[in-house]
């Protein structure tokens, strides 16, 4: 299969998985950062580990390099506006947290009031395999689970243009 065909087929394949979306936040020197993240997964059972992949182009990535903790928020189907905000604006140009209710959680990681299903993880390691995203492996330290939940999925945000190209 030619490279272009491979990429197109992989895009089609991963679209079928229709990942649930998260918003990952972090803070450095008291300045909050955060972006919409579709690349995320539990990656160990014993002990619990969770991985998120951050684009090297993102403000959030640069903040995460300097932070000890990241918060991972599950995005509900009714939170498209918040997903669009965190996925299309960039902290390089605007204060994304202006007008957003949040409080510092473990290690100072920003907790978004509107997204109560979330955990904070201590950043254990970063894995850079030379691609445009870097894997941050997290050790969960606090978790909150709130009621019934329907995820917002990739297919629900086709209208959102990322604030940074990958
Ligand atoms: C559907 C969708 C999924 C995304 N997934 C990721 C992702 O997994 N990792 C990432 O770093 N950025 C991802 N982004 C891009 C960032 O959310 C976007 O570029 C954001 O504006 C970056 O903000 P920042 O510069 O303030 O960090 C995604 C964007 C969209 C629209």
Q: Explain this structure to me?
A:
The protein is 19% helix and 36% strand. A hairpin with a 5-residue loop joins strand 8 and strand 9. It has helices spanning 3-17, 59-66, 80-88, and strands at 22-28, 31-37, 40-44, 49-55, 69-74, 102-104, 110-112, 118-127, 133-144. It has a 7-stranded antiparallel sheet. A two-stranded antiparallel ribbon has the order 6-7. Flavin mononucleotide (FMN) binds next to strand 2, strand 4, helix 2 and helix 3.
Terminal Cα span:
24 Å
Number of extended strands: 9
Number of helices: 3
Give a list of the ligands: flavin mononucleotide
In the sheet with the most strands, the strands line up as 2-1-5-8-9-4-3
Helix content estimate: 10-25%
Order of SSEs, N→C? HEEEEHEHEEEE
Provide the structure class. alpha+beta
* Strand fraction: 35-45%
- As residue ranges, the low-confidence spans are none
Mean pLDDT: 96
Cα radius of gyration in angstroms = 15 Å
Largest sheet: 7 strands, antiparallel
Cα shape: globular
Describe the secondary structure blueprint for this structure.
Blueprint: H1 3-17, E1 22-28, E2 31-37, E3 40-44, E4 49-55, H2 59-66, E5 69-74, H3 80-88, E6 102-104, E7 110-112, E8 118-127, E9 133-144
Antiparallel strand pairs: 1-2, 1-5, 3-4, 4-9, 5-8, 6-7, 8-9
Bound molecules: flavin mononucleotide.
Salient structural properties:
globular, alpha+beta, 166 residues
